[in-house]
Design brief:
The protein has 173 residues and is of the alpha+beta class. 23% of the residues lie in helices and 29% in strands. The chain has helices spanning 9-28, 84-91, 156-167, and strands at residues 31-34, 44-47, 59-68, 77-83, 99-106, 114-116, 121-123, 126-130, 143-149. The protein has a 5-stranded mixed β-sheet. A two-stranded antiparallel ribbon has the order 4-9. β6 (114-116) and β7 (121-123) form a beta hairpin. α1 (9-28) crosses α3.
């Protein structure tokens, strides 16, 4: 049987979550560079020209994940099993750039991820963010479930706030 002519689903998820982050960055006017090696569990380095009290031209680090579970309709938070290495890297308090996990939740069917017309291009469904900085070490060996508040939608306004806080030497709460 010949191989599938299109990318494996995990590659599609990686690209789609990256496209979502890049779209938000473009709307704000931030740079968004993908890392060439994901050793530190950072997929994107976002930069801006903001000048704050502590820094100018701040940067934040983003680790993206994509969950094909359909639209989130219940509860006030989303659970996501994160591998221990990523969990430990994102909870590190000594890193110089604030780090955030961005989870893009998509429909279960890949064909439903985008809706396009002459008037709009819509990403389905939503991206949520959280900071794991300072969380305790996990007692688990392979994964740690993290919880992202549904109120933490990754929007252009939130990204502006992340960059402003980073320029003032602060992380998002």
């Amino acid at each position: 049987m010949p191989p599938e002519p299109y990318a494996h689903i995990t590659h599609r998820q990686d690209h789609f979550s990256g496209a979502y982050v890049r779209a938000v960055c473009a709307a704000v006017g931030c740079g968004c560079d993908s890392t060439s090696l994901d050793n530190d569990k950072v997929d994107y380095i976002v930069s801006s020209r903001v000048s704050g009290r502590v820094r100018t031209k701040p940067k934040i680090d983003i680790q993206t994940k994509c969950q094909m579970s359909g639209e989130v309709t219940e509860g006030d938070r989303i659970s996501y099993p994160l591998d221990i290495d990523t969990y430990d890297n994102l909870r590190d308090v000594l890193v110089s750039n604030p780090r955030y996990l961005v989870l893009v939740v998509t429909p279960s069917n890949v064909e439903d991820w985008l809706v396009q017309s002459e008037q709009e291009l819509t990403f389905k469904h939503c991206a949520y963010w959280c900071s794991l900085k300072g969380l305790p070490a996990s007692e688990n060996a392979t994964t740690q479930t993290v919880y992202l508040p549904r109120s933490n939608i990754f929007t252009p306004a939130v990204l502006r706030q992340m960059m402003e806080r980073a320029s003032n030497g602060e992380d998002m709460p």
